[in-house]
Every structure is written in structure tokens, then in C-alpha cells.
TrEMBL record:
<keyword id="KW-0812">Transmembrane</keyword>
<keyword id="KW-0520">NAD</keyword>
<dbReference type="InterPro" id="IPR001457">
    <property type="entry name" value="NADH_UbQ/plastoQ_OxRdtase_su6"/>
</dbReference>
<keyword id="KW-1003">Cell membrane</keyword>
<feature type="transmembrane region" description="Helical">
    <location>
        <begin position="143"/>
        <end position="164"/>
    </location>
</feature>
<feature type="transmembrane region" description="Helical">
    <location>
        <begin position="6"/>
        <end position="24"/>
    </location>
</feature>
<dbReference type="InterPro" id="IPR042106">
    <property type="entry name" value="Nuo/plastoQ_OxRdtase_6_NuoJ"/>
</dbReference>
<comment type="function">
    <text>NDH-1 shuttles electrons from NADH, via FMN and iron-sulfur (Fe-S) centers, to quinones in the respiratory chain. Couples the redox reaction to proton translocation (for every two electrons transferred, four hydrogen ions are translocated across the cytoplasmic membrane), and thus conserves the redox energy in a proton gradient.</text>
</comment>
<feature type="transmembrane region" description="Helical">
    <location>
        <begin position="90"/>
        <end position="112"/>
    </location>
</feature>
<dbReference type="Pfam" id="PF00499">
    <property type="entry name" value="Oxidored_q3"/>
</dbReference>
<protein>
    <recommendedName>
        <fullName>NADH-quinone oxidoreductase subunit J</fullName>
        <ecNumber>7.1.1.-</ecNumber>
    </recommendedName>
</protein>
<comment type="similarity">
    <text>Belongs to the complex I subunit 6 family.</text>
</comment>
<feature type="transmembrane region" description="Helical">
    <location>
        <begin position="56"/>
        <end position="78"/>
    </location>
</feature>
<keyword id="KW-0830">Ubiquinone</keyword>
<keyword id="KW-0874">Quinone</keyword>
<dbReference type="GO" id="GO:0048038">
    <property type="term" value="F:quinone binding"/>
</dbReference>
<dbReference type="GO" id="GO:0008137">
    <property type="term" value="F:NADH dehydrogenase (ubiquinone) activity"/>
</dbReference>
Length: 239
């Protein structure tokens, strides 16, 4: 009886939060309702005895995916009012598409039956869900699991390759020179009078000679033949 009561509580909050995800006007509030929906779904998985899926929802989806959504929504200056323009114009078409998808789901689930050979669990009795999933994934489906990892690796390399741009004006420092520097090269103590600024003393220039002394050749424009004579140009560039 208690399990049924908790189930209905989790299910009610889950349906409410899922509805608020698509109806909330503030995108930050929508992401927060999505996180609430994930927590309630994990509670339902715990009631069903699937503790691995419950922890997966909390750790992966809430701890990584939803937080990433939240940071992207908060950092991007998106005009959501402009995005909602034309909603009434395309609402009938969207309603028709949604109705067709809903009818397909009803037809699919009304004729769905479990295969008789899959009724029995694949794991041995006495094992937890996590141990059973680990045994199945790393024995029967280990090649498919490794193939999924390779697909994700290729996707990551492709994203880096497509977004990486070599900029001539990019500042790339020489790591060896950075490790060899001393405190006197980077730290300078000044005694300023009341109301006096560092700019009145000539400002700071790090490194003291020229940026080209510690830069990788070819970065931040052309490296002059005599880097020590480039102090004035670095001041103009804001080095």
C-alpha cells in the first residue's frame, strides 16, 4: 500500500514537471522542471527495483546533461520572444503532426506483446541489476559496446576538427619559456601614493621585454627579427 502511494506521488509530480518543461515561458525554469522530472523518474525506477537506471538518471542526465542545458541557456543571449513569433500561424500544422504521432503510438502499443522467449530474465538469480547489466554488456554485447565507444570517439574528433580554426593572431606561448621564468620576471612590487594609479607609473608589461620573447614563432602576427625592439608595439596591442 505504501509503495503504491509513493508511486502515485512520484508519477503526479513527474507529469506536472514534464508539462511545465514545455509550457514554461522562462527557459531556465523549463530546465529546472526537467531536472525535477529526472529526479521523480529515478524515484519510479527505484520503486521498480532498477537502481542502476535510477542512479544513471541522477548522475548522467541531471549531473551532466541537464546542467549543460542550464549553462547553455543562461550563457546564450537568445531572444525567445522572437523564436515564438509565428506560433499561432503554424499551430494547426503542428497539431496535425502531433495527432498523427499520437495515433501511431496508440496503434503500436495496442498491438504490442512481449516475446514468449524473453519473459525469463537473462541474469542469474541472486545478482543485482548493476551486476547483471555489467555481465551482459561486457560478455554478450562487448563488441557492440566497444563499437558505440568508437562512434562517440569519432564524433568527438569530428566536432573538434570542424570547430578548430588556426588563427594567425592567436597568442600561443612557449611552454618551456613559461616554466623557466622567475618571480622577478612576472612580479613587481610598487609603492603608490594615495590616488595614484599604476598607469601613471608606465603600467605593466608582461613579459618585460616583448611578448615575442615567449611566443611560439608565427603566433600573434609576424615575429620581428629583434623581439626586444617590439616593446612599443606590444603596448599598443595591449600585451
Amino acid at each position: 500500500m505504501m509503495a503504491q502511494f509513493v508511486f502515485y506521488i512520484f508519477a503526479t509530480v513527474l507529469l506536472f514537471s514534464a508539462a511545465m518543461v514545455i509550457t514554461a515561458r522562462n527557459p531556465v525554469h523549463a530546465v529546472l522542471f526537467l531536472i525535477l522530472a529526472f529526479f521523480n523518474a529515478s524515484g519510479l525506477f527505484l520503486l521498480a527495483g532498477a537502481e542502476f537506471l535510477a542512479m544513471l538518471l541522477v548522475i548522467v542526465y541531471v549531473g551532466a546533461v541537464a546542467v549543460l542545458f542550464l549553462f547553455v541557456v543562461m550563457m546564450l543571449d537568445v531572444d525567445f520572444g522572437q523564436l515564438r513569433e509565428g506560433f499561432q500561424k503554424y499551430a494547426p500544422l503542428g497539431g496535425c503532426v502531433g495527432g498523427v504521432l499520437f495515433a501511431e503510438l496508440v496503434l503500436a502499443f495496442s498491438h504490442w506483446q512481449m516475446a514468449p522467449g524473453r519473459a525469463a530474465p537473462l541474469a542469474a538469480p541472486g545478482l543485482t541489476n548493476t551486476a547483471a547489466l555489467g555481465g551482459i554488456i561486457y560478455t554478450h554485447y562487448v563488441l557492440l559496446f566497444q563499437a558505440c565507444g568508437l562512434v562517440l570517439l569519432v564524433a568527438m574528433i569530428g566536432a573538434i576538427t570542424l570547430t578548430l580554426r588556426e588563427r594567425v593572431t592567436g597568442r600561443r606561448q612557449n611552454v618551456t619559456c613559461q616554466h623557466a621564468r622567475t618571480r622577478a620576471d612576472t612580479l613587481e612590487m610598487l609603492e603608490l601614493n594615495l590616488g595614484e594609479s599604476v598607469a601613471e607609473r608606465g603600467g605593466f608589461l608582461r613579459p618585460k621585454g616583448s611578448y615575442n620573447e615567449i611566443a611560439v614563432p608565427g603566433s600573434f602576427g609576424l615575429v620581428p627579427e629583434n623581439p626586444k625592439d617590439d616593446v612599443a608595439s606590444n603596448k599598443e596591442k595591449g600585451a
